[in-house]
Amino acid sequence: MQTIEVLADFGKRFWPWILVFTFSALVVWVYLSGWRVGLDPLVYRNGSVAVSNLPLGSTIYVDQTRRHTGVSGTADTHLPDGEHTVIIDSPGFYPWNEMVSVKKNERTVLKPILVRVTPDMREVPLDKSMQLRQIGSPIPTFDKPMNLPDNCISVYESFGRIIAAPMEGCEAPAFLCTSGVCEPTVVFTPKDRLRAITNFHGRSDVIVVASGTTVTVVELDPHTPQFLAPLYQGDAPRVINLSPNSLTVIDRSKTFLITL
Description:
Layout: H1 2-32, E1 35-37, E2 43-45, E3 47-62, E4 65-79, E5 82-89, E6 96-102, E7 107-110, E8 120-123, H2 126-132, E9 146-148, E10 153-158, E11 161-166, E12 177-178, E13 181-182, E14 185-188, E15 194-199, E16 206-211, E17 214-219, E18 228-233, E19 238-243, E20 246-250, E21 255-259
């Protein structure tokens, strides 16, 4: 009873300060939640960027400013209208970056492309390697493209360049379209001889390219910053995709499975 009386007396004496503190805390919470006052509409919420599938210990930078440290899973950040650069730095993976357009009251979900700096790679026994070497690595062409239906894209080689083209019957991604017209676009030009092109399981916005002595993970959207990450360096590798969890790299004398 005495405690209640003390609290009541405290409330009577300091109620203006309690009211100010409560109101200030509410204003801060509303602001951090992205709510703003404008003209049209009068009250709106900043758009947000959600980055999903983050490995443990990831750091998120927005417009060169660190926003989240040591996160995993999904992290949300409220941002004002406009273009923003998002960089994901995850332990053991190549840094990934993306330019994203943020709009009021809208939530944009980003799924970073995660490629290990030191991939989990194991050599295939000789007998199995000989079997895998019998499997061809045809490079997709205009007549026989590699289709990525989840992203409405067909990929093929033309005069040493890798082309992404819109597929019929579905909505093409924005990077293939200008003023409502969607057309084939050059997404990557290897510097050396092209040996193979294959898909990256679980992604319809990424391909794997073997050219010269390197196997590279290539983001299809060619706009800066386009994500490129080396996956394997050898003599004359080619790559085939036979498993949901790994890529098969066939080099001159050895064959490897690289876990994705």
